[in-house]
UniProtKB/TrEMBL annotation:
Gene3D superfamilies per record: 6-pyruvoyl tetrahydropterin synthase/QueD
Homology family: Belongs to the PTPS family. QueD subfamily.
Organism from which the protein derives: Flavobacterium plantiphilum
Protein name in UniProt: 6-carboxy-5,6,7,8-tetrahydropterin synthase
Pathway: Purine metabolism; 7-cyano-7-deazaguanine biosynthesis
One Pfam family from the record: PTPS
Keyword check for Metal-binding: yes
E.C. designation(s): 4.-.-.-
Cofactor: Zn(2+)
Cofactor: how bound: Binds 1 zinc ion per subunit.
UniProt xrefs under SUPFAM superfamilies: Tetrahydrobiopterin biosynthesis enzymes-like
Catalytic activity, as annotated: 7,8-dihydroneopterin 3'-triphosphate + H2O = 6-carboxy-5,6,7,8-tetrahydropterin + triphosphate + acetaldehyde + 2 H(+)
Length: 136
């Protein structure tokens, strides 16, 4: 029997979508207003879900407090009120699209979650635009 536990989190961050190796015209054509040289921000909503067997001793798949602490350290403390392009090392050479942000978050969380558990992150960039990532 496999059960999923999920934890929601929130962070605010600015970013700019662009490629340094493209012309301004190419960046504008592909990324539109998200290519604003002065950046723009989002109120991101994150759901991290861990799926696995219930521990017969604790009754937990994973202690929700432990999951909350991991998310706080690895995501909220690292991304909240930051400029993703300038302040977050993972995006120094990676375009901070919602897709790439979700993969970076997954990788950061995965390091702290036992391999017998599945992990999925769902990241809402806006109430209508969201991505999910379950790993390779």
């Amino acid at each position: 029997m496999r059960v999923t536990i999920s934890r929601k989190a929130h962070f605010n961050a600015a970013h700019r979508l662009y490629r340094k190796d493209w012309t301004s015209e190419q960046n504008d054509a592909v990324f539109g207003k998200c290519n604003n040289p002065n950046f723009h921000g989002h109120n991101y909503e994150l759901t991290a879900s861990v799926t696995g067997a219930i521990d017969p001793e604790t009754g937990f798949v994973m202690d929700a407090k432990i999951l909350a602490d991991i998310i706080k350290k690895e995501v909220e403390d690292a991304f909240d009120h930051k400029n993703l392009n300038l302040d977050v090392p993972e995006f120094e050479h990676l375009n901070p699209t919602a897709e790439n942000i979700a993969v970076v978050i997954w990788n950061k969380l995965r390091m702290h979650i036992e391999s017998e558990f599945d992990l999925e992150v769902v990241l809402y960039e806006t109430p209508r635009n969201f991505v999910s990532y379950k790993g390779l």
